[in-house]
Amino acid sequence: LQPCIMFASYVFLHAGPTHFLINMLTLSSLAPPVTERLGRLRSLAVYFAATVGGALGYAVLSRYAAPMVGASGALFGLAGALLAWDYSERRHRRQTLKPVVRAVGLLILLNLVLWWAMHGLLAWQTHLGGTLAGIGMALQPKGVKIGLADPEGAALHAWYTTGQLDAPGTS
Questions:
Q1: Taking the complete model, does pTM exceed 0.90, yes or no?
Q2: In angstroms, how far is the first alpha carbon of the chain from the final one?
């Protein structure tokens, strides 16, 4: 039972007060824009999907059978969702993608620096899995009306079906 529970419970465990504090500070900066865009329940859905995605990333890519701790998989999922929305909006408006590419590069650099500073004990696999899950939750397949892009799902559905972002509240 523990290996299954670990896929959702690791997000509540931390390696100490500093680890917890850093994750909570990160959560306090990433959660508000996601919650503003999605509402509380849908934000929690992204957070939970990124938690599971992070665990799956770790299970598939890690060479070690060590326990996972921390909320960084879920946090990277929130960052992934924000990056996906920014990418999508910039691409739709034909704006430069440089800020998105720069942010992705900084996240990769952050992971490399932390991995080095932590002597290889960083669960980068969890970060990658969480990011991919967050992106997947943010960029729904064409024609699917889950409604994560806005509470009513109208803007994203209109974009998928007509290619125009002219649904109510999107001007």
A1: no
A2: 49
Confidence (pLDDT) at 15: 83
CB atoms within 10 A of CB 68: 21
3-state SS of 18-75?
A: HHHHHHHHHHHHHHHHHHHHHCHHHHHHHHHHHHHHHHHHHHHHCCCCCCCCCCHHHH
Q: Quote the CA–CA distance of 139 and 159 in Å, as a whole number.
A: 12
- Concatenating the DSSP letter of every residue in 112-142 gives HHHHHHTTT---HHHHHHHHHHHHHHHSPPT
Average pLDDT over residues 33-54: 93
| Nearest-angstrom CA–CA distance, 7 and 64 | 15
Count of Cβ atoms closer than 10 Å to residue 60 Cβ = 10
Cβ-based neighbour number of residue 124 at 10 Å: 19
The closest alpha carbon to 127, from 111, 106, 113, belongs to: 111
- Cα 121 to chain centroid distance, Å, stands at 21
Provide CB contacts within 8 A for 87, sequence distance 6+.
Answer: 97, 100
